[in-house]
UniProtKB/TrEMBL annotation:
Cited InterPro entries: Nodulin-like (IPR010658)
Name by which UniProt lists this protein: Nodulin-like domain-containing protein
Keywords: Membrane, Transmembrane, Transmembrane helix
Lineage: Eukaryota, Viridiplantae, Streptophyta, Embryophyta, Tracheophyta
Cross-referenced PANTHER family: OS04G0502800 PROTEIN (PTHR21576:SF154), UNCHARACTERIZED NODULIN-LIKE PROTEIN (PTHR21576)
Topological relation to the membrane, as annotated: Multi-pass membrane protein
Keyword Transmembrane helix set for record: yes
GO cellular component terms, A-Z: membrane
Stretches assigned to the Nodulin-like domain: 9-158
Pfam families: Nodulin-like
């Protein structure tokens, strides 16, 4: 049996990381519930759906861009994700909650839901095709580029 002196420290770091993720998710959920009081269920569903789809997105990035390298994946998680967050944080703009039903808001949510379903189906098909056909790297890069376009589809909403 291998005994490591830093097991307790690792456990503590993982506990903090897990709890911080829960705090961040709660803050995002509460903020969006406040911004869209009429469509709370839709907002919660979209946020939780993208949370589930994120695992497939990370798998696609790990496989196609990082070539199944766990050290590159850890570097991507440690550096790439924060850089991406700091880069796109300027795209977030405050919105005033509407007091009543807004027809354009409904269609915006329908567009986001359709793009989410399209992204999910796309990820399912590309993952299955890669498992069956073993797609080469050039095609993999093109598929990841298309995945990123599908991820950015909600930005098309004015």
């Amino acid at each position: 049996m291998v005994v490591n002196e830093f097991q307790h420290l690792l456990w503590f770091a993982l506990a903090i990381a897990t709890n911080s993720c829960a705090w961040l998710t709660t803050a995002i959920l509460v903020t969006n519930m406040r911004n869209f009081p009429v469509s709370r269920g839709t907002v919660a569903g979209i946020l939780k759906g993208y949370g589930g789809i994120s695992a497939a997105v990370f798998t696609e990035i790990y496989r196609a861009l990082l070539h199944n390298s766990s050290s590159n994946f850890l570097l991507f998680l440690a550096v790439g994700i924060p850089v991406l967050c700091f880069t796109v944080m300027f795209l977030i703009r405050p919105c005033t909650p509407v007091s009543g039903e807004n027809s354009s808001e409904k269609w915006h949510f329908v567009f986001i839901q359709c793009s989410s379903v399209a992204l999910g189906v796309y990820l399912l098909v590309t993952t299955t095709l890669d498992y069956i056909l073993h797609i080469n790297s050039t095609v993999s890069y093109a598929l990841v580029a298309l995945m990123i376009l599908l991820l950015m589809a909600p930005l098309a909403i004015p």
